[in-house]
Amino acid sequence: MPHLTSTGSTLRTGGAERLGVGVPGYAHPLLAPAEWAGLSRPGTPLHWAVLNIDGGPGARPDPHCLEAAGRLRNARERALHGEAPDDTVRVSGGRLLGHIDLAFGGRPFDELVADARSYLDWYRVGGFYLDHCPAGRDRLPAVRRLTGTLGALLADSDSADEEGGLLVLGHDTHPYPGYAEAADQLVTFRGPWTDYRWSQVAEWTASYEPGRFAHFVHGVPRTHLEEAMRIARWQGAGTIFFTDRDGTRGQTDPFAALPSYWDEFVSRIGPGISE
Questions:
Q1: Where is 216: in which H helix or E strand?
Q2: Model's pTM, two decimal places?
Q3: Is 6 within the bounds of a domain?
Q4: How high is the pLDDT of residue 251?
């Protein structure tokens, strides 16, 4: 089962929470070799990265994805077991998550579980990113059933380490509050900087400890990086990905490649450390 964070009465004060990077899905390793190689680079404050092969695990193991997955998994293993003291990808991050498209509740349960099994068997992922997750109260029971099953699969596999598996729900907006009890982390914003800088956080999120939420923002100018991070901290997001790519000029996905200011982005967050 997901290692859920319990709710509490302490409200966020905005500013003390440590941020980390979540990568919603780089392009195929053949198209984005530098991006995938950089994820296991010492000092990268990586919480998790999503592996997505053609909208899911694909029909068969992809050798290039196997190599990328192996590098990231090995970096995490070295950090967890203290075999590489200079490797600052710590126990709080570095997981590889398999991308599963829920199609807002439109895909059959057995099909979703089959995707999960393929990710576990082929790529030994440490969790799952459930994209296009429903946000309404009526779909919550079905999502809970799915996350309970996925948590059991992770627990029975040799993929999840001693920190357990990780389940992330990709709502891209604030969902019905009950979803916070169905997974480890919720993506509550995914969109352009022009919307993010004026965004408001749902009041119910203040009942949860910082780090239960993730924000993905594109079109963030370099000159507004610090402002964007202040917003993330104030709204209680523990995992972020900011980029100046904006989906124009032939870009199909603004999150598929590195922002032009990647090194500055990472340095502003600071190195990954143990929680």
A1: strand 213-218
A2: 0.89
A3: no
A4: 64
